[in-house]
Design goal:
two-stranded antiparallel ribbon; nine-stranded mixed β-sheet; globular; alpha/beta
Length: 352
């Protein structure tokens, strides 16, 4: 172990993931970064996950007393782990042996980089980018997330077109590197999300404090995706729409709150009725439920907005970083202009 190298803790949150650990853990354990620890933080699994972990002498097991979800599980686990960098890694991700080194090297060269992700390819189709992160995350003016290599459900083939290191808007929670001190100072992930969009919220908060979020495609991982909830699952649809509304309302600057947010509500309504008229009642119902939740919890979300503002103010290192928050409507570009590749989109970040 090289004591002069930053200590990296790779933390895999697990809940009844016995089969996933059997498949994906071997590649993680083969990581070549010298000063690293691999942890399994277990959300009170009832399967044989721990027996799988016991096969590895240098693997650390951290047992939680119940299932706290993605956000609560990580927050509780990372409070008990000491390192310079945390890596939040999904249990359904395979990695290249040297996947840690390029990102740590990048983050060590610039202390204003708060978080970073590798290039994420699809485990079952390694020639293509994976939905949850691809080659860096972006946001449109109405809060719709997309990626360099993935717009809505269209994932591009990886032909080396997105190999540059870039300052982006969000890093995928499937494989997110973050400075441990920053994670702790910002009070980690917002547990009200439970799952989905929580990493975008975290990245937005640290960018508001002046930090950068980067993608480093020299590091490559392969994500199975949908291991917990498939994209077609109504619960996932509900969480995505609900959490996206919370994300936007919680973080968008006040100057945009009463202009862009109503348009986002309208776009969601259009999406709901589009699903209904195509016979997809489950999606219609999920979007409707998401909006009902938002309306009945508006005051608690306002409190979270105030709390986020305090977290940002207490950790500010400079000017707000809006790299990757694109001055465009993704719905218009994708559905009407048929621009289904990131390279076809105009590149202009918001200035507020």
């Amino acid at each position: 172990m090289s004591s002069n190298m930053p200590k990296v803790a790779v933390v895999i949150l697990n809940w009844n993931g016995e089969k996933l650990l059997e498949t994906f853990l071997p590649s993680v354990m083969a990581s070549t970064y010298p000063n690293s620890e691999i942890w399994i933080a277990d959300n009170a699994s009832s399967d044989n996950s721990e027996k799988v972990a016991q096969q590895y002498e240098n693997l650390h097991w951290l047992q939680l007393d119940k299932n706290y979800g993605f956000t609560g599980g990580y927050n509780r686990a990372l409070k008990q782990i000491k390192a310079d960098y945390f890596v939040l890694l999904n249990s359904d991700v395979a990695v290249e042996p040297d996947w840690i080194e390029p990102i740590i090297s990048l983050m060590e060269t610039d202390k204003s980089i708060g978080a970073c992700q590798p290039k994420i390819l699809a485990y079952k189709q390694k020639t293509h980018f994976e939905y949850a992160g691809a080659s860096g995350g972006y946001l449109d003016i109405y809060g719709f997330p997309f990626c360099r290599g993935r717009i809505f459900d269209t994932c591009e083939e990886d032909n080396g077109q997105y190999e540059s290191v870039e300052s982006v808007f969000w890093a995928s929670g499937a494989a997110m590197f973050v400075r441990a001190s920053l994670y702790n100072n910002m009070e980690g992930l917002d547990e009200a999300y439970f799952a989905h969009m929580e990493e975008i919220d975290f990245c937005w908060r640290i960018k508001r404090a002046g930090y950068k979020v980067m993608v480093c495609p020299e590091s490559v991982v392969y994500h199975l995706g949908g291991a917990t909830l498939s994209k077609a699952n109504p619960k996932k649809t509900y969480l995505n729409f609900r959490n996206n509304l919370i994300l936007l309302f919680k973080n968008v600057p006040s100057v945009y709150l009463f202009t862009r947010f109503p348009i986002r509500i309208l776009l969601d309504t259009v999406a709901a009725y589009r699903a209904l008229f195509s016979g997809d009642f489950n999606t219609f119902k999920a979007i409707f439920k998401a909006h009902i939740y938002f309306m009945f919890n508006i005051f608690s979300i306002l409190k979270r907005r105030k709390k986020a503002n305090k977290q940002v103010n207490n950790n500010t290192i400079g000017k707000v970083n809006n790299d990757g928050w694109m001055r465009l409507s993704l719905v218009y570009r994708y559905f009407l202009k048929k621009q289904n590749k990131f390279s076809l989109l105009p590149n202009s970040s918001c200035d507020v």
